[in-house]
Write a structure and sequence with these properties.
Blueprint (H helix, E strand, L loop, with lengths): L1 H13 L9 E4 L6 E6 L9 E3 L1 E4 L8 H13 L7 E6 L4 H9 L3 E5 L6 E6 H7 L6
Parallel strand pairs: 3-5
Antiparallel strand pairs: 1-2, 2-4, 5-7, 6-7
Length: about 140
């Protein structure tokens, strides 16, 4: 993980606008244990879209951590007016990952980039409609 952190720091130093768009590390509130990560890896495209990715250690799956982490990433990302759509690619057999996306308002969008990959997407409007409270 240290190698990734150094790479991320170099990328942000070279392009400060990347701050926040690179992966975030997820830790538990209770004991600050690293349990996963998620993020975008790049700035939004000129059309306002970006791709989200996330991973959670196996022993912490099924407890809502990924859903909470993805929700926080989306809240942060959609606070930037230039972002209009987020996509996520996964495999059909990764039902827990699909459920994380669905809980956060993503809808099936068809085939993704690659063999057997399926794509889900969430527009700003879908995020506003799916999010509790007032979003801006």
């Amino acid at each position: 993980m240290a190698g990734h952190l150094e790479d991320f720091a170099r990328r942000v130093e070279a392009e400060p606008a990347l701050a926040g768009w690179l992966p975030w590390h997820w830790v538990t509130r209770e004991d600050r244990t690293l349990i996963g990560n998620g993020g975008f890896g790049r700035l939004p495209d000129v059309d306002g879209s970006n791709k989200i990715g996330y991973a959670l250690v196996e022993e912490r799956q099924g407890r809502g951590y990924a859903s909470e982490g993805v929700a926080a990433l989306l809240d942060w990302a959609f606070s930037h007016p230039g972002l209009t759509r987020v996509v996520a690619d996964t495999y059909p057999e990764l039902t827990r990952s699909i459920r994380v996306l669905q809980k956060n308002g993503f809808r099936y969008a068809g085939p993704g980039d690659g063999d057997r990959i399926i794509r889900y997407e969430l527009t700003r409007w879908g995020w506003l409609a799916a999010s509790p409270g007032v979003k801006g």
